[in-house]
Design a protein that fits this description.
The structure is a homodimer.
Chain A: H1 2-9, H2 25-28, H3 52-62, H4 65-68, H5 74-84, E1 96-97, H6 99-103, E2 106-107, E3 111-116, E4 119-122, H7 145-150, H8 157-164, E5 167-171, H9 173-178, E6 199-202, E7 207-209, H10 212-215, E8 228-229, E9 243-247, E10 254-257, H11 258-264, E11 267-275, H12 281-287, E12 300-309, H13 310-316, E13 329-337, E14 343-349, H14 350-354, E15 361-366, E16 369-370, E17 380-382, E18 395-401, H15 408-411, E19 440-445, E20 450-453, E21 458-466, E22 473-479, E23 487-488, E24 490-492, E25 513-520, E26 527-536, E27 561-568
Chain lengths: ~575, ~575
């Protein structure tokens, strides 16, 4: 059932004005989507595989319990990797193929090629049978390893056997070497490797978001594809010599090693969604140019964080309620620096930091592992319910102060303004620094410009919803007709198959909800304008349209999310 | 300056399709507005006074420092009343006039008559000179006393002398008697007297809101015109024998007299805005019929409340953090009962009740006086940032419980639903009880259908803005062109002339902000569609339109507020 519905909802991806190509009846019932890494080089898309795949698909659908076991065991996957791959035998009977050649095979028309452990595979014919649906196309023209590392289900012998049937060559030795990144002497030379599925908005500093359809697949976002928003080069921090300084309290400066942070304070675990203030900025850019990275809808992710409570550490450093008479902010300084030595900085209100229900962490774990370098290794602030920019990574110093952080990012960035305010008239002092974020939701599946076949009879819409300040999302409304009529989506607040935990206490709903609606295709419609809007438990709602909330920095973009989907009538087929 | 601007902004009030009447040039520059008590009997409006008043007005404008001293000293006014009225001498030379006759004089065409201490006055000619502007028309056809009680500035000898010049008769002895309400035996017979300016939405139980333009005149709403939302008859509570019971805590039942509540616990004072969940319901009714009282935009008011903190009382009754392991709600029961003896009831989350920063009061004072009967005498809950319905009046019992209140109003009312949910499909269990309210704002001046003269050159727009949960309003945007372009309003968070207090700590901004914009009239426009929208410090914004937030109970109506105003060109005048 799950698979059938998923299949119905698969949609074709491409630029809005994508060209039509010849379509065969067999694939219409399970259209596929190709991931294009950016709007600049959005890959063209064509279909080539024929009717015979209908049977292959039906057979696979019948016996793919494996898909139901889909889990995200990234690290486990990496560990198991070396043993399971032995089952693929190398043979010299295959031609040597360059990466350049492999890269040209990224469409159904030109074939879908992938590499795996030095082998080159033409999986064009397998695409329609892939139990995980169109996600397989994310790897087109590149390596399978990063994707299989995300999906442990692939670490099974029969999967590898299946792959071996599609082998067409050996990757050239030179290109195998190139797959290990060349390190250079620039400040970004020590940056960690990143998952190739990420859509890169900026390379230095690194800013990237995952494909939306991956995002809504997992309640907990795997760290590898958790959106990355760095302001400066990733610092290399030695855990053994790491020190965290806490200043501004009656006890004087408290300095903690990583070990002390882990052992002197109880470990507290929360699941919290982080969102960049600029998430969905690209929609504001369509109204009028704004300044900032052109984020899509995926500069938001959800993880489980473990660490010491900031409250406990501040108490150990001498905090008492008296302090709140003179100090109102807690400043964070990162260890990441620009060329002048200026560190990244931000602050949060003191009452958020010390409130027992504020749940602010000095986190040293992300999804049960050490925090990865891109996310603040070894220690970052996690300020649940609060804009990503205040969740300072690579945390070096905490200062309890009468003043907000004086950093650029606190004072002259990450603030909201009226749509009429421009760079000539803006007064950054006139607006408060963004802390809690407003109600947000977006559609991850289908994507804008997708095509749904009339024979599918129904369409499945998926997405996420979240609100700042610990306000729980209580409802998501979905419209297929541009907002004229609405239906209520089903929500989930845990991984698929897992029972959700107890409802969070009021004001402590830090994690997003994923949602889904499956609805019949309207009889007469040739196009759907799918819209979503969420409501939180303060009954805050999203604004209808983008222009009235447009602002020069393109932050706080939380209008209804809209995607247009074309319905292809069956009689268009040949 | 203040007066001139006020004069420019005065606008004509009436139904949208109000008839045009002959207009004299002199009054065009300072149009007046007539209050109509409801849409059903919206008073017609005509002008009669001529050019000679231009000079009278100018003279008065020059010397009306009194207007700047306008204050709202209701009770003081009532006390001083008896002495100052002595200056009006009764004389038998005047004819006896019935109230019926007085009531017919409610328009400039038929004359504006008022009564005061048994005298009848034709103040038609004074209207244009009134330093307080068009508000004088609120008393047309009725008694001046309730209005003068609101505005202490009238308690001056020269004001009374001025009035005496307009005397035209004596009110009949019978009607003087009738001015004291006749008490009967129905459950509402002991209801308090209400201010005649209130727009009554329902008489039994009493539900009424003030005229919007009075609302935005005072940062602190005078208790007499504070919106009134009773669910049941007002109970008569004897303060001497009053008892408040606190149950559900380890210490057993704690019972407190009013005296004990006042003396055993420190008095805490907050200024907090209360809003009915149904405020602005009438706008939803225009989209599609909803169930509920047809509130305009004034089911919201702001007062200063004094009382014991609920937190302190719960601690005295045995509350400790252990209790929070088993109890999650604090239930309130009122002393107001229906015919079956069922009391009004509601509950709030325990963490709001016990949080030091929650500021929940067991209030026994409103604006520095005993709480009036309509507002919960002698003790009510004040739950700042939370929907009015949880601020239980005439408080009899507090129960700390694992469960929410089982009352109708908590379980099957005061919840939000999707626009597609109707009375056949609604499942009240599927939505959370409204607690914190979303961001809200509305335009109080001018009113919908008002006429602005081109010669005014500019228009002044006023209103209020507020958000629930202690979220501070940080910006109000105003548009004169239906939302195409926006300007930022000036805000104030205190009475005019008073310096605002220090900014509230984050999450404790309980009071609304009043705002104002004066803008040039657009050169070409014949009509203005004035729109406002507010932003709180979590950057929550109001939705653009009503239909997508429509819900069957007509609650949470917080779309952009829109009023249409006609610009009358000067060449229309004769």
């Amino acid at each position: 059932m799950l698979l059938l519905r998923r299949c119905h909802s698969l949609t074709r991806f491409g630029p809005l004005n994508t060209q039509r190509h010849q379509v065969t009846p067999a694939v219409v019932s399970c259209a596929v989507r190709l991931w294009s890494s950016s709007s600049e080089d959005g890959g063209s898309y064509q279909r080539a595989h024929g009717p015979r795949w209908r049977h292959g698909l039906a057979g696979l659908l019948a016996g793919t319990g494996a898909v139901l076991a889909y889990g995200l065991h990234h690290h486990k996957a990496e560990q198991q990797d070396s043993s399971t791959v032995q089952t693929i035998k190398k043979t010299s009977a295959f031609p040597i193929i360059s990466q350049e050649e492999v890269t040209t095979h990224r469409s159904l028309e030109h074939g879908i090629w992938v590499t795996f452990k030095g082998g080159v595979y033409d999986i064009t014919e397998f695409v329609a049978m892939h139990p995980g649906g169109d996600k397989i196309l994310l790897a087109a023209g590149g390596a399978l390893e990063p994707f299989w590392a995300l999906y442990a289900v692939h670490n099974q012998e029969h999967v590898l056997e299946m792959l071996s049937e599609y082998k067409v060559g050996e990757l050239s030795a030179e290109d195998v070497k190139k797959q290990r990144a060349i390190k250079t002497s620039d400040p970004y030379s020590t940056e960690p490797e990143r998952h190739p599925a990420l859509h890169i908005n900026n390379l230095k500093p690194f800013n990237a978001e995952p494909p939306p359809e991956l995002l809504s697949d997992s309640f907990i976002t795997p760290s590898a594809i958790f959106f990355k928003r760095n302001h400066l080069p990733v610092p290399q921090v030695d855990a053994a010599s790491y020190q965290l300084h806490i200043e501004g309290l009656p006890g004087g400066v408290l300095t903690l090693s990583l070990e002390e942070l882990k052992t002197r304070f109880p470990k507290h675990t929360i699941t919290a969604t982080l969102q960049c203030a600029g998430n969905r900025r690209s929609e504001m850019n369509k109204v009028k140019q704004v300044k900032g990275l052109n984020w899509g809808i995926a500069a938001i992710s959800n993880a489980t964080w473990g660490g010491a409570r900031l409250r406990d550490v501040l108490l150990a450093a001498g905090y008492s309620p008296d302090v709140a008479q003179r100090a109102f902010h807690v400043q964070f300084e990162g260890l990441d620096k620009d060329v002048t030595g200026t560190t990244y900085g931000a602050s949060i209100p003191l009452n958020k930091a010390v409130n027992e229900e504020g749940d602010v962490l000095l986190a040293y774990e992300m999804n049960g592992q050490d925090i990865p370098p891109d996310h603040g290794y070894p220690v970052r602030a996690v300020v649940p319910g609060t804009v990503g920019a205040r969740n300072v990574k690579w945390l070096g110093k905490i200062i309890v102060s009468a003043e907000e952080s004086s950093s650029h990012w606190q004072q002259n960035d990450y603030k909201g303004f009226a749509p009429g305010t421009d760079w000539d008239t803006v007064d950054f002092k006139s607006a408060p620094a963004i802390q809690e974020l407003p109600i947000q939701s977006a559609i991850t599946v289908p994507t804008d410009g997708a095509v749904v076949d009339r024979s599918s009879e129904e369409v499945t819409v998926k997405g996420y919803a979240w609100s700042g300040g610990g306000r729980e999302v209580v409802r998501v409304d979905v419209s297929l007709d541009g907002g004229k009529t609405w239906q209520v989506a089903q929500m989930r607040s845990s991984e698929k198959g897992q029972a959700p935990g107890p409802s969070p206490p009021p004001g402590r709903a830090w994690a997003w909800k994923l949602w889904e609606v499956t609805a019949p295709l309207p009889a007469e419609a040739q196009e759907l304008e799918i819209v979503c809007k969420a409501v939180d438990n303060s009954y805050n709602m999203q604004p209808d349209t983008v222009p009235p909330i447009w602002n020069l920095r393109g932050v706080l973009s939380n209008a209804w999310h809209r995607v247009k989907v074309e319905i292809r009538e069956d009689d268009n087929e040949e």
